[in-house]
Every structure is written in structure tokens, then in C-alpha cells.
Amino acid sequence: MSRGSDVRGDEVSRGSDVAGGDEVTKKPEQAGGQEPAGQAVGEELPAEAAETLMSALGTLRESIADLRFGLDLPGVEEARQAQADLLAQLEGYVLPRVRTSTAPALIVVAGSTGAGKSTLVNTLAEKTVSRTGVRRPTTGTPVLACHPDDREWFAEGELLGGLRRLDAPTPDAGPDGLVVVSTEKLPQGVALLDTPDIDSVVEEHHDVAHRMLDAADLWIFVTTAARYADAPAWSLLRLAKERGARLAIVLSRVQPRSADVVLKHFVRMLTEYGMGDIDRFVINEAKVTDGRLPDSEVTELRLWLAELSVDEERRAQAVRETLNGVLNSFRTRVPALAKHLEGQVAFRTELRGDVEAAFRGALMEIDKAYKNGSLLHGEVLARWQDFAGSGDLMRSLQLRRRGKAAKQAPERVLAFKAAIRTGLESVIVAAANRACEEVVARWRHRSELGAKISDGLDTPSDDLIRHTGRAIASWQDHLGELVRTEGVAKRSVSKLVSFDHDSLALIFMVAMFSGSNGEGVPHRLVNALLGAESLRGIGAKALSDLRARIGMLFDEEAMRYGKALDSAGIPDESVATRLYQATYNLEVAR
């Protein structure tokens, strides 16, 4: 059975050429990525620059962590997954790697179901560190194999810090654990991480596999001669290319009789995809004993690992290439997240606009009511007719010589004042009720989430009536003060007499709310006593003040809907801006 390193031809890169020549260190464009921006590959960041970069990365992490996608808009699940992936990569790889750039390199061994990842790791480690077998999927808990001198870094370090460290796999370990095994057969400075299958039928395994890849300094992708053209394989290669990750490929289970055809086709596919120069290794179909391949099948790959181990600069360069590739990927991944966030913000703005429109309409409704005279009806009209017809009107306005003690206000005056206050309250509360109903109807029409978060908000708050009563009573007192301080009677009369300002203020209210054609309403009386100029001035101020007080009441009601939007996790307008700014600051720091 001929070994993959013996296959010759221009289309195939031999393992011995890769391990012994300059092919291990590829230019970034040869690895399928673009030339990284910022710090040049191969250069160490100065301490001050590293601190600046760490600060920018920390701010970006906080900005991403603060994101909330409360609306079930199209693509929201993808956005939430992208957020989780970015956070996991920042916390589990980027930040730890920037803090300790000289730490051992983590090489993730990834591939599709049955590709032989665990068998390859066991063979290189010369130890059964990862379970193998015909049952699929086999690997459920990631297994990391490293040299004993590197074990502390991987067992206690921040890399993949969210995973529980285990000394051996256990039945209940699950995909959130990480088994750390040491072996002197692996060279110091590099570690191999066996991952669950990228196309596992178990969703958790699939997610963990991608999380492991996000924390890798280098990737070894394992596929078979029978499955190298499958979609999952090329999906992973596409991801590696997008991330600018340093990558090597192992093509396993190659039958000698078909090796030339398979290898030429595979290389052609890689070349067409812009990845023709990546490191490649071939493993022939061979008998697996105790979960391991014959050692001769991995000689060239073992030499490649040894080269990385002894050449610190080459290893550091590979690590920096991958790190730069990840940072470069943030240029598109983070703005894509921000774009979806802007969709959430835009929808929040629409919901908020529904609230503003409803309460603005309620305020206009009240404006219309006191302009067309509809406020003077029912109890208010009855009290006014009783007040005017009983003689209390003239007695309350009776001219009094200066210095005479003011008489106590008749009961009809007090009752009339209370009726006006109650009438205004009922108009305001009714308008607020209609506004709340309108908001809820609009939100329910927009989305199911709108219906959910508007639950219980179709009526005003329990405090509205009490707050409205206080506001109207305060406004009545304010109007009385305006009449007292600004309603100076005609000069010829004011020299001899003074007026009961509270009663005059009540009549002024009737004049304000009766409209221009109200029958029996004392427009001429108020005009005669105060003068047309004072009437217009006081009226404008009184209406403006009343409108402001009602506006404050409605603002308090509208705040309930803003709180509902906040509690639903719908972001405000500033969140996307902070995300863009954090991305820009990261580019500056690089």
C-alpha cells in the first residue's frame, strides 16, 4: 500500500515537501485570506499598543454583550447566534491570545462524521486519548492532547475558559466540558484538539465544533477520499477562508488504485476555490488497531508538527496570521450584526411612533372639545345655568367698595367650580382611554410580539384620575391668579370698585370653553369687565398652561409603553451607534 507522500505530480503537494521546506509558512494570500491590516505579521506588538488593542477589544466585547434582540423579526435567530459566536470567540480566543501571544498554539482537528479525526489524534499522541468506533457521532466531549509542560496553560488558562476542565471523559460530561490529556509524544508548543463532527446529527455537537474552530490558532481539516466533495467539507473550508485561518488538510482513506485521480480532482477543486497552496497530507487506507493508524501513515504530519514546535517564529507567525484573520472578519461580522440591530431599532421607532401619534391625537381631541363648546354639557351646563339664573352670578361679581371685607363664596360657586373640574377630568380620561386602545390596536396589528408586550396596556394607569384631578385643580388656581394679577378692570371702574377674582375666573373658564357661539355664555360680560386685550392675553396663557399640564399627564401615560419596549429587550437608537464606534476604535487600535 503506497503512502501519500510517495504520490508524485504537479497537482499534489507532498507531505515531505511541506514539512521540510518553506511551505509551512505561507503568505496570507496563499492561505486563502487577504493581507492583514494593522500590525505586520511576524512583529510583536509593543506593550503600549497591546494595551490599546486590549482596551478596544474589551469595549467591543461589552458592546456586543449588551445587545438584545427582543423582536422576532426575520433573521433574528441568525443574529442571536452571530452575537453568541462573536462573544465566545472574543472571550475564549481573541482576548486570551492577545494577552499571551507566546502561549502554545492550539491546533483544532475538525472534519465531518467518520473522517477519522479521533484516530488521527490518537495516532499522533501515540495514546488513546479520544474514543473511536463505528457508532456515530463518536466524539461528544472535546479532547485536548498536549505535552506535559503545556498542560497548565490549557488546563488553567483563559483559552476556551467557558468549558469545564476534565481529566478524563465521563458519561455526563457533555459538550460543555473539555478533557485535557498530556502525552510526551506530542511536541511542546503545540496541542491537538479533537472536536465533535461539523455535520453531527446532534445539534449541540455541531455548535461545539464551530466554537472550537473559533478558538483555534491553526486548523487541521480531515476528510476522506469518499467525502471530500461533500457540502459540509466545503462549508468548513469556506469558513476558514473567510476567517483567514491558517489551515492544513488531511485526506484520509485513500485507495492506492484511485489515488492519482482522487488527488488531482481534490487539488483542482482547492485551486479553483483559491486554496490550492495550503498544506496537504495524504493518509492511505490502512488498518486501525486500538484506535490508531500505522505510525508510518502520519510521519509527514508528525514532522510538520515538530517543525512548528521547534521554530518559535514560524509558530508565532502562524498564530498571528489566524488572529489577524479573526480580527479582519470583525469588519464584516460586527457591521452585519449592527445592521440587524438597526432593523430592531427601526421597528422600535415605529412602535414608539404609534404611541406618540395616539396621544398626540388625544391632545388634539381635547383642543377641539374646548374650542367647539362640547366641554359645556351635562353637569357643567346644569351648574352654570343654576349659577347664572339664581342671582349668585351678579352677587358674586357685586361691586364692593375698597376696604370692605370679601364675602364668603356661595355654595353654588364652589359647586360650579367642582363641576368644571370634573368635566375636564372626564374629557381628559376619556381621551387617554381612546389613546391607549389605539396604541394596543396598532401594536397588535404590527406583530405578535407587539400584542404580547401591550398586554395590560389598553387602559390608562390607575393613577391617571388622581393625577388629572390635581392638575386641573392646580390649573384653576393658576387661572384665578392670572385674573387677579393681569385682569385689571377698565380704568374708570377700577378706581371705585374691586371684584371677586375667583368668581370672575369661573366665568372666564365658561367663556373659554363655550366656543364662539355659545348661547347665554358671558363673553360680553368678561370682555366688559376685563377689556378685550386682557381677555385675549389671559385666554392664551390659560389655554397654553392647560395644554402643557394635559401633555405632561399624557407623557406619563406614554412612558408605560416605553418601559414595556425596554423590558422586551428592544434596543434603543444608541446601541447600534456604539457598536459601529467600537468596531472603528478596534481598527484604529490595530
Mean pLDDT: 78
Give the oligomer, counting copies of the same chain as homo and different chains as hetero: single chain
Total individual domains: 2
The value of Rg in angstroms is 40 Å
Cα-to-Cα separation, first versus last residue: 50 Å
Query: Biggest sheet: strands, sense, closure?
Result: 8 strands, mixed
List low-pLDDT spans: 1-43, 133-137, 399-408, 489-497, 517-521
Can you count the beta strands?
10
Major beta sheet, strand line-up? 3-4-2-5-1-6-7-8
Question: Helix/strand/pairing class, anyone?
Answer: alpha/beta
Helix content: 55-70%
Number of helices: 20
H and E string = HHHEHEHEEEHEHEHEHHHHEHHHHEHHHH
**CA-based shape:** rod-shaped
Measured by DSSP, the beta-strand proportion falls in 5-15%
Pfam family, one: MMR_HSR1
GO biological process, one term: ribosomal small subunit assembly
Organism: Nonomuraea longispora
Biased composition (Basic and acidic residues): 1-14
Explain the overall architecture.
The chain has about 600 residues and is of the alpha/beta class. It has two domains: about 100-310, Rossmann fold (3-Layer(aba) Sandwich); about 340-400 and about 405-580, no CATH class. Helix content is about 55%, strand content about 10%. It contains 20 helices and ten strands. It has helices at about 15-20, 45-65, 75-100, 115-125, 150-155, 205-215, 230-245, 260-270, 300-310, 310-370, 380-390, 390-395, 410-445, 450-455, 465-485, 490-495, 500-515, 525-530, 530-565, 575-590; strands at about 105-110, 145, 165, 175-180, 190-195, 220-225, 245-255, 280-285, 400, 495-500. The strands form two sheets. Strands 3-4-2-5-1-6-7-8 form an eight-stranded mixed sheet, with helices on both faces. Strands 9-10 form a two-stranded antiparallel sheet. Strand 7 (about 245-255), helix 8 and strand 8 form a beta-alpha-beta unit. The longest helix is centred in the middle third of the chain and has 61 residues, at about 310-370. The radius of gyration is 40 Å and the shape is rod-shaped. The model is unreliable at about 1-45, about 135, about 400-410, about 490-495 and about 515-520 (pLDDT under 50). It comes from Nonomuraea longispora. One of its GO terms (molecular function) is GTP binding. InterPro entries: GTP-bd, GTPase_Era-like, P-loop_NTPase. One of its GO terms (cellular component) is cytosol. This is AAA family ATPase.
